[in-house]
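1st attempt posting a full record on here, be nice pls
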Amino acid sequence: MTDLPTRRDRRLAAPVRRHDPGVPQSGRTRVMGILNVTPDSFSDGGLHAAYDAAVAHARDLVTAGADLVDVGGESTRPGAERVPVEVEQQRVLPVIEQLVAEGIAVSVDTMYAATAERAVELGAVIVNDVSGGLADDDMARVVASTGCGFVVMHWRGHSDRMYRDAVYEHAVDEVRREVEMRVAELIVLGVRQEQVVIDPGLGFAKEGAQNWEILAGYERFASIGLPVLVAASRKRFLDGVGSPAGAPPAERDLATAAISLLAAERGAWGVRVHDPEPTRAVLDVWEAWRAARS
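the predicted structure (as tokens):
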């Protein structure tokens, strides 16, 4: 019988090392739990905006199977307005400090270099920047100098204009090329290749069918030769797939878990989810099946 880690084991596991981007041991797909310390995120805005609620939810994410917690203080839902850096830091830095003190591996979801730098100083091991460093010219310096992991997402502009830029002749080829070019630019700026995880940016400057094309073309992104993060959780293109059309975003968690499984089968470095429990369950079953065949 294959021994799999219990949820308590995962919670007590050592944090990700500072100088790698959190690559799991033995090729295991990492589950990144989403913690939005915001009043206006599309799925859970306001639920965890207060410090105590945010810390409690982070603990729940880990108990439910998250390997690390992605803490963000600025909504990137379609149409969202930018949050001043001071407000973002007031939201996320105290939470990050507490989670690190409890031994929880943390990534920071930010487009501000100043926030990224402070978060890494507090112990965050990954910077997850939906702009891939394009929104703040100082981000590459921060990532290069700190040695943290860096999630580089495909990005064509801020949330107030993203859908105006959702124009592609061949979505997979164009997104792949733009991601590859952005990584090359970052390496010229001093970021080491081994720090980078790529994210094709589902839902960002992409309409519904384009997101499915990106997922179906996963192998094209994997062929870049860098770890890949798949972040489909509860996004609008899942509406009506595995749940009734028009249902609340939280009812898209089973569809999210299915995508997590398909991504893991294809070797994804990680999946980013609001509710780790269904994703962790399907991945545990898949890992047991895979182990029994080896």
